[in-house]
């Protein structure tokens, strides 16, 4: 099968390419990635001789058309992905997430190619801490940030192209990922690399905000399961029952990294900060054989901490600029 992976030099996309190189060795993979600040071709070094890498933007109509024409499936990860950045400058999110997805949709429509669109639970807004309900495929979209609004917009475009043009597409909305190769702007790697440099973890606001953590390999295995076993036209929510508040995650990191439990500081909260995400993944589990392998977040965090310890050369070049940008906004 000829697979075009968009955003394959980013965190989840690179893990997808590395993992499927082992689990689906017969796939012929082409990656298109614009190599923004978040993309790193070095993440793909272990499989560089087995894949084709194309540097370019999914907003480039001609390039997208030429690559989609030669694919059987497009797995669409490429996006601007960080909420804090979307609050400082929304435009790149519109270009990559909305226009980029539109370009892909037009190309898969023209060439009759299957699409799997990767999205986020953030399109559903947030839940109260004591809400007994979790997000399902039927939850109405209600995004809070420019990032989540751009992802919700992309999801709606995909759904419209399925209904109006009959394209063969599936969608998935996943909760917060963690694992190797994640940019140090994100919560967990920011704290791990900070602790390694002797800097206290930084908690936004009260730290009561809850995220539903899933290991990146579990997310990517679910994507493969949907491509191979999912029903065309359908949306699947991906989650591994991993709800934790941010303070609890920091305490876990401090425990594993041998620091005192109160060795962290509170910083300015994020404007519009979503309180809680929680996924009900019953539909995915009913329709595919996917089950998460990282049932215990302790194991996944230990593996992630070990990876950042062993790969300073990968993350150190990102660290200074990332912290300088955070310092400007008091976070
Ligand atoms: P990331 O920021 O680490 O990687 C995004 C990649 O896309 C980068 O390599 C970047 O260079 C590339 N890219 C950006 N704009 C592009 C463009 N115009 N053309 C081509 N490539 C472009 O993001 P991530 O965390 O790996 O997220 C991947 C996808 O998964 C996104 O669609 C995101 O919305 C979704 N998602 C992320 C999470 C999470 O917790 N990180 C959870 C659910 C869904
Ligand atoms: O839910 C899925 C989403 O998860 C994805 O769609 C996004 O691409 C991904 O970035 C992530 O969004 P969040 O905004 O939840 O992730 P982030 O890592 O930025 O923050 C996680 C939580 O930690 C959030 O409540 C804010 C908080 N936080 C973050 C940072 C960077 C802190 O308390 N301190 C920090 O230093």
Automatic annotation (TrEMBL):
Its EC number is 4.2.1.46. GO terms for biological process: nucleotide-sugar metabolic process. Pfam families: GDP_Man_Dehyd (PF16363). InterPro entries: dTDP_Gluc_deHydtase (IPR005888), NAD(P)-bd_dom (IPR016040), NAD(P)-bd_dom_sf (IPR036291). Residues 4-295 form the NAD(P)-binding domain. CDD domains: dTDP_GD_SDR_e. Its cofactor is NAD(+). Gene3D superfamilies: NAD(P)-binding Rossmann-like Domain, UDP-galactose 4-epimerase, domain 1. One of its GO terms (molecular function) is dTDP-glucose 4,6-dehydratase activity. This is dTDP-glucose 4,6-dehydratase. The lineage of its organism: Bacteria, Bacillati, Actinomycetota, Actinomycetes, Propionibacteriales.
